[in-house]
TrEMBL record:
<dbReference type="InterPro" id="IPR004527">
    <property type="entry name" value="Glu-tRNA-ligase_bac/mito"/>
</dbReference>
<comment type="subunit">
    <text>Monomer.</text>
</comment>
<feature type="binding site">
    <location>
        <position position="253"/>
    </location>
    <ligand>
        <name>ATP</name>
    </ligand>
</feature>
<protein>
    <recommendedName>
        <fullName>Glutamate--tRNA ligase</fullName>
        <ecNumber>6.1.1.17</ecNumber>
    </recommendedName>
</protein>
<keyword id="KW-0067">ATP-binding</keyword>
<dbReference type="InterPro" id="IPR020058">
    <property type="entry name" value="Glu/Gln-tRNA-synth_Ib_cat-dom"/>
</dbReference>
<dbReference type="Pfam" id="PF19269">
    <property type="entry name" value="Anticodon_2"/>
</dbReference>
<dbReference type="InterPro" id="IPR014729">
    <property type="entry name" value="Rossmann-like_a/b/a_fold"/>
</dbReference>
<feature type="domain" description="Aminoacyl-tRNA synthetase class I anticodon-binding">
    <location>
        <begin position="356"/>
        <end position="456"/>
    </location>
</feature>
<dbReference type="InterPro" id="IPR049940">
    <property type="entry name" value="GluQ/Sye"/>
</dbReference>
<dbReference type="GO" id="GO:0004818">
    <property type="term" value="F:glutamate-tRNA ligase activity"/>
</dbReference>
<keyword id="KW-0547">Nucleotide-binding</keyword>
<feature type="short sequence motif" description="'HIGH' region">
    <location>
        <begin position="9"/>
        <end position="19"/>
    </location>
</feature>
<dbReference type="Pfam" id="PF00749">
    <property type="entry name" value="tRNA-synt_1c"/>
</dbReference>
<dbReference type="InterPro" id="IPR045462">
    <property type="entry name" value="aa-tRNA-synth_I_cd-bd"/>
</dbReference>
<dbReference type="InterPro" id="IPR020751">
    <property type="entry name" value="aa-tRNA-synth_I_codon-bd_sub2"/>
</dbReference>
<dbReference type="InterPro" id="IPR001412">
    <property type="entry name" value="aa-tRNA-synth_I_CS"/>
</dbReference>
Length: 457
């Protein structure tokens, strides 16, 4: 059996880090098992779904390194859902209801006041044909509920009926269907709620594992029952904890909270984002993985905590820095060029290797490029000015290499008696316009003899 998973976003906004977590977890699960990953756009909300957001989702997933094996839109598959609905109707498992939302709320309130659970009483099943005709003549249109299999033939006498599953994250789980209302699958306007299209698509696409947020746990018993009603074997389920903000609030794409787009624009590496999004809220230490393949070998659904996973964007910076410090030149050359950093001397690989350990993001290299090519002069104390003139006199001729800085400063120490901060800081400030930064033994060959002489005078 080929493992097949799916990620099903609605193209109604940009992906945020909370969306990235299930997408990455599904991708890693499939990657480790050489399985398939399906991208399904849940775009039946015609008013809010847009092609722009659908394209942005694909782009953001690609940035993370997720390359779906298949993708499709629910809006193109309505005949499949219609056929499933007709099958359920023919079996007497999908029945029309005419109550308004206000009427239903009043019934729920009354049940709660009497100390009873606010479960739908299936009153619509008692309607005769002429009563339905009269309601429709009044302008009412039915919504359609799925009749849960929690009875022995008389739907008004329910009994405890459990649907159980071995959850990949939470272990043995069970839901009593008698404690639930028959779910609405079709709205009054004929459009579908999430449940039926999702199940139909999972069956048609051969999805073997449904891995999603824990907010769907309560829905799973109902969905298993619908899979069975459609003569399908339910998939394996896994419900992981949800990412929240540091303060514990849920993430919302409508508010643009921690969108992948904004994190990318801030210069974060995709593997820093992926590592934090996946490993937060697990028993693993949060360390940056170099690739999704490596992360797939580390992550296991059984290691996911039951408590919420608080995502702190401030943790991205040290993670990102660790990745940046090890990035080879080939991986950043195009981005450095976009920052105006030349490929030839004093740029290129030698420049990147000299400065990368002082960069939290690749874009930080621009600061050190300015330090090498066109630094802003810093104020110089009077006694330092004389020292810098002596330094210029002792400046060795080219060619320069990593030994030049040590030989030059050694000669300066011997002549002037300066050492430590008093020796090195004035030189760094004059040569780079910075008080700290990359190792000067690597920067001096990039700056060169002529530029150094001009900056010291």
């Amino acid at each position: 059996m080929t493992v097949t998973v799916r990620f099903a976003p609605s193209p109604t906004g940009f992906l945020h880090i909370g969306n990235a977590r299930p997408a990455l977890i599904n991708w890693l699960f499939a990657l480790r098992r050489e399985g398939r990953f399906i991208l399904r756009y849940d775009d039946t909300d015609k008013e809010r779904s847009t092609d722009e957001f659908a394209s942005a989702i694909a782009e953001d997933l690609g940035w993370l390194g997720i390359a779906p094996h298949e993708s499709f839109r629910q809006s193109d598959r309505l005949p499949l859902y219609d056929a499933a609905a007709e099958k359920l109707k023919a079996a007497g498992l999908l029945y029309p209801c005419y109550e308004t939302s206000d009427e239903l709320e009043r019934r729920r309130a009354r049940a709660r006041a009497l100390g009873r659970p606010p479960v739908y009483d299936r009153a619509a099943l008692k309607l005769r044909d002429e009563e339905r005709a009269r309601l429709e003549a009044e302008g009412r249109r039915p919504h359609w509920r799925f009749l849960l299999p929690n009875h022995d033939g008389d739907p008004f006498v329910t009994r405890r009926v459990e649907r159980s599953w071995d959850d990949l994250c939470r272990g043995a789980q069970s839901i009593d269907l008698a404690s639930l209302s028959d779910p609405v699958l079709v709205r009054e306007d004929g459009s579908y709620l999430y449940t039926l299209p999702s199940i139909v698509d999972d069956i048609a696409a051969g999805v073997t594992h449904v891995i999603r947020g824990e907010d769907h746990v309560a829905n799973t018993g109902v969905q298993i029952a619908i899979f069975e009603a459609l003569d399908a074997v339910p998939p394996v389920f896994g419900h992981h904890n949800l990412l929240t903000t540091v303060s514990g609030e849920g993430l919302s794409k409508r508010k643009g909270a921690l969108s992948l787009r904004s994190l990318r624009e801030e210069g974060f590496e995709p593997m820093a984002v992926a590592s934090l999004a996946v490993l937060t809220g697990t028993s693993h230490a949060v360390e940056p993985a170099e690739s999704l393949h490596q992360l797939s070998e580390v992550f296991d659904l059984a290691d996911v905590s039951r408590s919420s996973a608080k995502f702190d964007p401030q943790e991205l910076r040290p993670l990102n820095a660790k990745l940046v410090h090890s990035l080879p030149y080939a991986d950043v050359a195009e981005r450095l060029s976009g920052l105006g950093i030349a490929e030839t001397h004093p740029g290129g690989e030698a420049f990147w290797l000299a400065v990368r350990e002082n960069c939290e993001t690749v874009a930080d290299a621009a600061r050190w490029w300015r330090a090498v090519t066109s630094p802003q002069p810093l104020p110089v104390a009077e006694d330092d000015a004389a020292f810098l003139r002596e330094a210029a006199e002792l400046l060795p001729p080219e060619p320069y290499d990593e030994t030049t800085w040590g030989a030059w400063t050694g000669a300066l120490k011997e002549r002037t008696g300066r050492k430590g901060r008093g020796l090195f800081l004035p030189l760094r400030k004059a040569l780079t316009g910075e008080e700290h930064g990359p190792d000067m033994k690597a920067l001096l060959p990039l700056i060169g003899q002529r530029n150094s002489a001009a900056r010291l005078s």
